[in-house]
Amino acid sequence: MHVRAPAILVAARQHGETAVVARFFTEEFGIVAGYVAGGRGRNLRPVMIPGNLVDLQLSARSASQLPFARVELTESRGPWLAEPLPAAAIGWITALTASALPEREPYPPLFSALEGTLSAICHAPSARGWASALLGYEVLLLRELGYGGAGERPQGEMAQVLEAMDALGPALDHYLLADRRADVMAARNRLRELLGRIA
Questions:
Q1: Hey, what long-range contacts does 179-183 have (CB within 8 A, 24 or more apart)?
Q2: H helices within the chain, ranges in order?
Q3: pTM, whole model, 2 decimals?
Q4: Which CATH superfamily is domain 2-75 in?
Q5: Is the distance from CB of 98 to CB of 23 less than 8 angstroms?
Q6: pLDDT in tens, 173-196
Q7: Where are the domains of the chain?
Q8: What is the distance of C-alpha 129 from the center of its chain?
């Protein structure tokens, strides 16, 4: 197995003292996992941040082996992690993607939507500019995985976005995250709490 593709890092977990086992979302191959040697080292630690766009190279000798991954940063989300709202949004949307999508099944519309949503989170002047896009990504994710839509994303005031977000939460929890060990919904609840403060 040899893969080279643009990717969005959606999860990174420490392995041993310096390595990382990471999950990447690619347009052509879907979610792929890889072993990043030195991923917690000085050079790669800023790269191994969920939400970062990377140039990914994966190689494995057999299909049953966890591939070795080499990554080069193409766009960093690091500068926005110092702000509570963007950090919470990036943390939620990457955790949702990593938890909900099966490995090695491509979802090109979701890849484009995630890339656009992350860009909106980082470049919109305030959460009012990206909250609707984040909700739209959640709706699209449910649709792409075969659970139907939960209505269109609202384009109005933040209060409408929050109301739609509250209505969509149970579907995400029940259909996409019910069998997950980690409490991924806690990240969404934290984001919802922060958004509620600006409504």
A1: 180/99, 182/95, 182/99
A2: 84-100, 108-123, 131-144, 158-171, 185-198
A3: 0.92
A4: Nucleic acid-binding proteins (2.40.50.140)
A5: yes
A6: 988 887 765 578 999 999 999 999
A7: 2-75, 78-198
A8: 18
